[in-house]
Amino acid sequence: MELNPSNEELLAYYAEVLSHLKDMINEELMVLVTNRTHNIFQKSGDKMIIS
Are the C-beta atoms of 1 and 12 separated by less than 8 Å? Predict the structure, then answer.
């Protein structure tokens, strides 16, 4: 990146960073939801069916 990037270059850079952060957050949320769901099924004694 240049020392004096244009506004468009900065916006493109920040959009890329935010997109990456969003993907990371979504992955973490999926792990949390999966773990929570698994724990609920474990406690209820039901078997979780994964197709």
Answer: no
C-alpha–C-alpha distance, residues 33 and 9, integer Å: 36
- Give me Rg for the CA atoms of the chain: 20
What's the angle, vertex CA 43, arms to CA 41 and CA 45, rounded to 5? Answer: 70
Tokens representing residue 34 in the block: 């999966």
Give, for 16, the enclosing helix (H) or strand (E). Answer: helix 7-44
**pTM (2 decimals)?**
0.59
Calpha distance 5→32 (Å, rounded)? 38
- pLDDT digit string (tens) for 25-47? 999 999 988 888 887 777 666 56
How many Å apart are CA 45 and CA 26, to the nearest integer? 28
